[in-house]
Specification:
533 residues; alpha+beta; Glutaredoxin; 5-stranded mixed β-sheet; 16 helices; 16% strand
């Protein structure tokens, strides 16, 4: 992730402090890893090979490759660490935005002014003409390339200076970047935000598209078709976080309206792996990945994974039409003013953040993703838990008639369906319980017991059993210890357990789970029965 805490001396060709900060420093921050592979996707709808679009204006791969070579050549001369490919692309995007405004305001710079600045830089760096020529030759660049780049940056420098202060220029660039429609056609696997994890990140997606060295022909840069998704890698249920576990690198919580205007909080999905995707319908790269995200969300929803789409600055009708056309049947939230995008430091879309079941940010991906690459990101989060974490927490609770029931009563002889409902006064819960009662005979025929649990006392449990004429045990989790242990307590923010179902085999292992997004989100009895072997 690009950061604003940067050195100001002699960076980005030695231009002023303001331009250094605003156009992204040529200095690589210490927290960033070495340059990483770039992943491909289907070719964009452009006559040229495009790596990004800025308000509909393309940045070609050739421009980007030349910019990266220039940035690295000048960083070498200045004795600075080399920029990553993403840093150079972000600088190029910001330069494009600032140049457009500067030229509209009639700011210019001449080749002679660029030549004077180049000589000033060489003296500052204690380099002579021969050293310049050697480094340029190593990067297959000419003096004309360098002078043209410096001339452009001089125009930007002059334009930003007219704001009067560095702070005002920073505010202008931040606002301009937030308003810009920046779509990315190449991808970067980058450290998570807001801090870098000490644990290893999930491996980057396969089939990389590497930015070719300067001695390789550019034909090597043509993207190849993405492989087909490989869903068979997912086995078992998602790990359930322990009640007192705290995220190591917490994802900032937020609440946004969905397409129906209902408030949805990120924290509601705690206990599931979250794929948080920032997108917009105008973005060609977002359109390219939309079907894959919809397919991935459908196939992985029963494995403890939830895809959440955060749309930036579009209205509900636009988002709904696009989602229905592209099979995006997962939670879609409206970030109308871009506030959550700013919170997550989204500088171009699509951007995807991977969050584990405990609420920790585990990876961040800038650029397009296909379903197979998404599977590569979430697979470690579904399989890296110990066997103990995949065991259902044992419990002992009173049922509606006061008798005690424990999970261990059933281990070794039959499977158990643990059904968390919300309260005695919950109408949708009553519907869920009655539906389970109607199919209870089929569960017993499969050798499975159903245990209904809610955060309530024995008296309320008795009322629930009587209202639904339920034959299976109704347990009272008044202290909410069991709901917490299964990661479903207060998931909807109202002091109750989320509607949830866990299928536990004879050995006490969770083999399937479903945690609802709202009070009406619960699986059908037939769906639950299909999970029982």
């Amino acid at each position: 992730m690009l950061r604003r805490g940067i050195r100001f001396d002699s960076t980005c060709y030695g231009l002023s402090m303001a331009i250094t900060v605003l156009l992204v420093s040529c200095t690589t921050p210490a927290a960033l890893p070495p340059p990483v592979a770039l992943t491909p996707f289907t070719a964009p709808p452009s006559p040229q090979t495009t790596v990004a679009e800025v308000d509909g204006e393309a940045i070609t791969r050739e421009e980007w490759q030349r910019a990266l070579a220039l940035d690295r050549a000048m960083s070498t001369l200045a004795g600075q660490s080399l920029p990553t490919p993403e840093e150079s692309l972000q600088r190029l995007i910001n330069e494009r935005l600032a140049l457009r405004e500067a030229r509209m305001a009639n700011f210019t710079a001449t080749p002679d002014q660029a030549a004077v600045r180049l000589q000033t830089l060489l003296r500052r760096w204690d380099r002579n003409e021969l050293a310049l020529d050697v480094v340029l030759a190593q990067h297959e660049l000419s003096r004309a390339d360098v002078l043209d780049a410096i001339r452009r940056l001089l125009i930007v420098e002059a334009y930003l200076a007219h704001f009067g202060s560095e702070a005002d220029a920073q505010r202008w660039m931040a606002e301009r970047r937030q308003r810009a429609k920046v779509g990315l056609y190449v991808s970067f696997s980058v450290p998570p935000m807001p801090t870098v994890l000490t644990a290893a990140l999930p491996k980057p997606p396969a089939t990389p598209l590497v930015l070719a060295p300067q001695d390789e022909p550019t034909t090597h840069l043509v993207p190849t078709p993405s492989p087909q998704p490989a869903y068979e890698r997912v086995t078992g249920a998602a790990p359930v976080p322990t009640p007192n576990s705290l995220p190591k690198n917490p994802a900032p919580d937020f609440t946004l309206p969905n397409l129906d205007g209902q408030a949805v909080a990120l924290s509601q999905f705690r206990g599931r792996v979250i794929v948080l995707n920032f997108w917009a319908s105008w973005c060609p790269a977002c359109r390219a990945e939309a079907h894959d995200f919809g397919d991935f969300a459908h196939r992985y929803r029963d494995h403890g994974v939830t895809v959440i789409g955060v749309n930036l600055r579009e209205d509900a009708a636009t988002v709904r039409d696009f989602a229905e056309s592209n099979g995006m049947a997962y939670p879609l939230l409206l970030d109308t003013h871009g506030a959550i995008g700013r919170m997550y430091e989204v500088v171009g879309i699509p951007t995807t953040v991977i969050i584990d079941a405990a609420g920790s940010v585990r990876a961040r991906h800038v650029g397009v993703l296909n379903a197979d690459q998404l599977a590569d990101y979430v697979a470690p989060l579904l399989t890296d838990s110990s066997s103990a974490e995949r065991l259902a927490p044992d419990f002992e609770l009173p049922r509606e008639d006061g008798r005690s029931v424990s999970l261990r009563d059933y281990l070794g002889r039959q499977s158990v369906v643990v059904l968390f409902y919300r309260s005695a006064g919950c109408g949708s819960c009553q519907q869920q319980l009655r539906a389970m009662q109607a199919e209870y005979g089929r569960f017993r025929a499969r050798g499975a017991e159903v245990l209904a649990i809610a955060v309530q006392g024995v008296t309320q449990a008795s009322v629930v059993r009587e209202l639904g004429q339920l034959e299976f045990p109704v347990l009272a989790d008044e202290a909410h210890a069991v709901s917490e242990a299964f990661g479903v307590f207060n998931r909807l923010g109202d002091g109750l357990a989320a509607p949830a179902v866990f299928v536990i085999d004879e050995g006490g292992r969770i083999i399937w789970s479903h945690i609802g997004r709202d009070a009406n989100d619960y699986p059908t009895p037939s769906d639950i029965l299909s999970r029982i072997s």
